[in-house]
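In the laboratory, one determines a bound structure by crystallizing the protein with its ligand and collecting diffraction data. In a computational setting the workflow is compressed into a single prediction: the sequence and the ligand go in, and a structural description comes out. We illustrate the idea with MGD.
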Amino acid sequence: MANTWGYGAMTNSLGDIQNAKAIIIFGANPAVNHPVGFQHFLKAKERNNAKIIVVDPRFTKTAAKADYYAQIRPGTDIAFMYGMLNIIFKNAWHDENFIKDRVYGMEDIMKEAKNWPIERVADVTGVDADLIVQITKHYASNTPGTLIWAMGLTQHSNGSSNTRMAPILQLALGNMGVEGGGCNILRGHDNVQGATDMCCLSHTLPGYYGLSDGSWKYFAKSWGVDYKWLKGRFKDPSWMNKKGFTLSRWWAGVLGGNPGEDKIYNANTRLKALFVMGNGITSTAQTKKVKEALDNLDIAVFCDPFVNEGAILTDKQDDVYILPAATQFETSGSVTATNRAAQWRSEVIKPMYESKADQDIMFLLAKKLGFYDELTAGMTVAKNKKSYKWPEDATDEIARIIKTIGLTGWTAKRLKKHQKNWHMFDEVSSRGYGKMKGEYYGLPWPCWTETHSGSPVLYNINRKVSEGGMGFRNRFGLEHDGVDLLAGVGSAPKGSSNKDGYPEINKKNIEKVLGIKLSDKEKKAIGKNWKVDTSNIIAQKCMEAGMAPYGNAKARAKVWTFADPIPLHREPLHSPRTDLVKDYPSFEDKKNHYRVDTRYISEQTKQDWAKDFPINLVTGRLVNMNGAGMESRSSKYLAKLTPEMFCDINPNLASKHDIRDGAMMWIHSPQGTKIKVKAKYSYSVSSDRIFIPIHFAGVLEGVELKDKYPSGTVPHALGESANTVTNYGYDIVTQIPETKGGLCRIQKA
Ligand SMILES: Nc1nc2c(c(=O)[nH]1)N[C@H]1C(S)=C(S)[C@@H](COP(=O)(O)OP(=O)(O)OC[C@H]3O[C@@H](n4cnc5c(=O)[nH]c(N)nc54)[C@H](O)[C@@H]3O)O[C@H]1N2
Ligand SMILES: Nc1nc2c(c(=O)[nH]1)N[C@H]1C(S)=C(S)[C@@H](COP(=O)(O)OP(=O)(O)OC[C@H]3O[C@@H](n4cnc5c(=O)[nH]c(N)nc54)[C@H](O)[C@@H]3O)O[C@H]1N2
Ligand SMILES: [Mo]
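The predicted complex, in structure-token form:
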């Protein structure tokens, strides 16, 4: 929502998938990565005879449960979806009224879809033409259908276009804003949605408030700190509104300017210090660059319940600190689930030994750095208290300030009540019963007021706004190039006093758009617009009028400010189809993208990559391991299931290279790096690609680093990191690495 066409949140929920009549999954493997959530998929099969369609370069455990399986070439999902749309538009299977009233720019999509006749789609994607037709026919004629995606769509140089294409397919079919439909993005770590909403990122303030003077001033005021003081924290004020480095390229901030490295823009200085809290480091693409950067830091600090393998990877001897962080079981507070719902967690045990909870580590650090009072002021300022109570006052601070995604209703008191009564909610609809009547479990955002129900399905106009209904957000003006951006006549949410499209609500237009009169007292208290209205009068008046504070507009299929206004297929930077690069080239190189130059077309055309590196490299996850893997490899029983790093390889490909099942093999990358892993014969991959899991570390280019672990901390499984050989390549908007679309060369070891 706020991150429109988010790389993020589900529009619906896992339980709601049980309402789907068809399920299409692009680049996700929930049977492995969301095994509990996957039960809802299987129940949809039982309840509705819903068919499951899986589009994935490998035959996964999810594919094993599918009715249709398309073995797509990595990085060609946009071509696949245009192929579907071509068939849909040709047969008039699209939802004309929905498009007319609620979508902007679909004409351009229709035009581009014409460029994707089925034979071309089959050639580009490697999927049989007949199969694409069957899938399209089935999916278009069984609505509502839900569309699922995860990392198979995002980790590409055009990943952000992928994540726009999928909602466009859903909009075309009218599969948005309905139960059993929507875009259901299966998020990663348990609170990754919360981390995103709070902006543990470098390009916005919490709640997706943009980096601008206005937002900073709003936060300064809400936090009870002096705006001038905040400004003074920056080298000069101009840096306040500039995006920082991303996690995927922090290392460029250290190495920037070295010969052969991308240029950086960081006030003429390199990054000197690294503070890591809850990231495995070897999960970052291009491990050898990461190592080089670690080696060149002045100071590196790792706060982790385990020995972070960043500390193992580096040869740096001094000023590397490992701080023992407590786990989630040793702290409490709210977290946000993949469907935008909050959950309250209680501390199970006190932090063990000398470990400390993350917030306490941060508070101690802030004390040392001299801004502890400012850091914690937001928890006391509104309540006029001398000291705060953790975590309740932090949760209430969030509820008080974050309007953009509607967190006003998320008070600690309400969230605790949900935790206590979680047996009082329906598994499919999240609807509450008994004393929880009128609320949805976890109050999925937007939760506009302290009595709002939460919104289980985004963009649903068949509900009242006070019960979770809403149109699309009005965020980009009232018109563009003469075309109305507001929703069409009669397409306001149920019970609205304004039946049509309407703009986002501000102090100036509220009386006119809502058709009300404010008292003088209200006029005085009200904020400039709904996003900064701490009085919350705008939201309350909107609820009474049955209207969403953020307006009722059209969803944008076309985003005129993006490099590609409508999503276009572009070959990965390292494509196995050199012949297609000419027709579908990557983007122009991008200057100063999150403070670093990023190569696209120049990297793609630097040489005929496919000639020397003919095999597609696919990376992904295993059910028994998590992320960078230190946590799970430290568990004897989990490690035992996959004790060694391996590579899934088709026997036909292996035999070409004389690699036996169980023998060691080298994988070489275009960057000149290599890993040595055990070959595992598997028909899950075709003979033009291999698959490696991402969870190993502790071996670098054939050299074991076992001696570098502090005594007693060597995990039960060590192995090469997949990311030592993942290729250079970053998304054009988000900088997510192209870890699902690279090339490699293999060799018997
Ligand atoms: N057991 C376990 N569960 C986890 C995690 C874990 O580490 N272990 N991690 C959590 C996290 S952080 C996340 S983000 C999620 C990730 O969940 P998923 O996205 O499901 O995880 P992956 O296995 O990385 O990738 C999914 C699939 O994308 C496919 N794929 C690769 N390239 C393409 C492509 O170009 N197109 C298409 N259509 N598919 C492609 C891969 O073959 C793979 O099967 O899982 C979460 N759950
Ligand atoms: N090649 C390739 N690379 C990938 C991916 C891929 O598909 N392919 N997927 C990417 C994705 S989606 C993700 S999310 C990343 C995952 O990679 P990471 O984010 O690195 O994932 P984890 O291993 O879960 O790392 C979390 C670290 O936090 C520590 N930790 C656990 N609990 C706590 C806590 O309460 N406090 C603190 N301070 N630390 C804690 C763990 O011990 C661990 O060291 O990998 C990315 N990298
Ligand atoms: Mo993730």
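Confidence is low (pLDDT under 50) at residues 1-7. Keep in mind that any predicted model is a hypothesis to be tested, not a measurement.
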